[in-house]
Amino acid sequence: MRFDLQSLKLFVAVCEHGSIARAAEAENIAPSALSKRMSHLEDTLKTALFVRSNKGLELTAAAAALLQHARVLLRDIAQMESELLDHAEGVRGQIRLHASLSTIVQYIANDIRDFLALHPGLRIDLQESLSPAVVRAVAENTADIGVFGGTTVTTGLQVFPYRSDRLVVIMPPDHPLSRKERVKFREMAEYPLVGPQAGSYLNSLVLRAAADLDHPLKLSIRVNGFEPVRSMVEARLGIGLVPEHHAERYVSSAPLVAVQLDETWAERHWKICVREAESLPAPVQLFLRHLLGSQDTGHHE
């Protein structure tokens, strides 16, 4: 059984768009030609791949299995082409890293700087994502290494501890909680809160804490990232949770104060995930060892 790589690429497009017409437009091919390729693929496999419904095309069980393998195959080929091009241009390897924004700002930027100073011939492709997406990218082989937080299911992956940070509460200096050395989450819940990004590690911690209190949160606004949290707190739209590393900068440059959050979950633990460390390409293994070793030096500038 032989597969045409172009047909597999088009098959993935049809699955992702849920429509022959939309996939044809995205791939710049005539719908009739795309339909013919899908029919030929079904003939090759001797099984139906799609069922038409009011919602569009639905995948059969065979199509779902093929989609998983086709994605891995196409991405491996793309990575092979990229690495061979890198060698032709004098670059000796590429590392695909997906990570949460918090870890990029606090730790990974410095870790990459130090690593590339030692290995200038390597290249790192860094993508910021929420923790569930980071884990999914590693599982689906679109990332070599993932840095994530929380309780995202990591079945089939190897997980290593990376770094920890501590959350504090930032607020205007005249806020009723500003004179306290420490505050409990139940005290915070009495005031408007600048909510973290939906789906983020921090959001999962906040929602769990609110559920334990059985107390509705007064979410005045929800933002993506800690710089917007700072801006919203300065605008007196609520108090906000940020890592201590960020709070130190905010307090020194704005009319804000930071108060320790007196909760066990205020210390967040970040982790690294990979598929199989022993079978990773040599450059990826090298970078993984560097990240794991960086815990001992702990850059925080």
From TrEMBL:
<protein>
    <submittedName>
        <fullName>LysR family transcriptional regulator</fullName>
    </submittedName>
</protein>
<keyword id="KW-0238">DNA-binding</keyword>
<dbReference type="GO" id="GO:0003700">
    <property type="term" value="F:DNA-binding transcription factor activity"/>
</dbReference>
<dbReference type="InterPro" id="IPR036390">
    <property type="entry name" value="WH_DNA-bd_sf"/>
</dbReference>
<dbReference type="GO" id="GO:0005829">
    <property type="term" value="C:cytosol"/>
</dbReference>
<feature type="domain" description="HTH lysR-type">
    <location>
        <begin position="3"/>
        <end position="60"/>
    </location>
</feature>
<dbReference type="InterPro" id="IPR036388">
    <property type="entry name" value="WH-like_DNA-bd_sf"/>
</dbReference>
<dbReference type="InterPro" id="IPR050950">
    <property type="entry name" value="HTH-type_LysR_regulators"/>
</dbReference>
<keyword id="KW-0805">Transcription regulation</keyword>
<comment type="similarity">
    <text>Belongs to the LysR transcriptional regulatory family.</text>
</comment>
<dbReference type="Pfam" id="PF03466">
    <property type="entry name" value="LysR_substrate"/>
</dbReference>
<dbReference type="GO" id="GO:0003677">
    <property type="term" value="F:DNA binding"/>
</dbReference>
<dbReference type="InterPro" id="IPR005119">
    <property type="entry name" value="LysR_subst-bd"/>
</dbReference>
<keyword id="KW-0804">Transcription</keyword>
<dbReference type="Pfam" id="PF00126">
    <property type="entry name" value="HTH_1"/>
</dbReference>
<dbReference type="InterPro" id="IPR000847">
    <property type="entry name" value="LysR_HTH_N"/>
</dbReference>
